[in-house]
């Protein structure tokens, strides 16, 4: 009995195996907890404090740094040389000569754990969170001259159409492009897509594989949903629903023009990407342009940043406009905002704020820059987006009445 008690005492002594195991376990648990906390902190990096602000304002930091670097490089140059260098840099960051419906800005990101739901997919709320960054990225790329003049671009609303989920850890892109605009609102289409690794595409004519677009019945169902939401049938475009009452869209148009309008409208609901990427979600954002509390016409902002109709609309033999071969209206725009030719940021701000009202309609270079085929496409696309907007406005009316 004494031997057994002695053995038990040895086991429970400070130098015994039981105490050593317990001591090691107690020291190990805090270490495991520490590494678990660090791991949890790392996998949720995109949700750290101020990370949303860093992601959203990242393009602002980048272009600000480029501007400051240019100022440092030209600090010992004469004033005329410095102003010319700055003016050339401003032109280089503007979409001079591009078509407003042709420019696509791509924002790349990944579906991290903190933005995914319990099913292992990107959560519904994360789409809106990602769009905050994508819209800011698009604004910097498309409208640098407007933002430079002190303008801001508030969001009026966003509508989502979910087609298929984005798996957790998947890298995806938000492809943003102008859908249309009216006298106040600019509508932007955002397409959430993923690319298949190792897949070779066949140029712009490449179509999605069966795994990407689903069965014919599924694809048709998706397109029916989209058409019901956006009403994109060009045949349904009439004077009664026209954004400009009394001006029927397509009246007196040639077969080629009618075909172009139908193609423009149908492009808003295409479930296929030119490079064969998988389309997951479509979002439509409505934004407007403000100088203080004053609304600026979207056409003025679009043209002032260099967007234009193609050269064929102005009888030019060029295949496309560019920074070196700017569109006809760019000279008039530069006369307002370019310092080397007598313009200024102050003059541009005044034009945006209320100066455009004093310009006769026949002399409004921004309307002339977006005439012809651009105006036809704008009307066709606006018809599609307007139906969606009308539906959302109807829901807002119901909500204001307290109805379900």
TrEMBL record:
InterPro entries: HotDog_dom_sf (IPR029069), THEM6_lcsJ_thioesterase (IPR051490). Residues 236-255 are annotated as: Disordered. Coiled coil: none annotated. It comes from the Eukaryota. Pfam families: 4HBT_2. Belongs to the lcsJ thioesterase family. This is Uncharacterized protein. The lineage of its organism: Eukaryota, Fungi, Dikarya, Basidiomycota, Agaricomycotina.
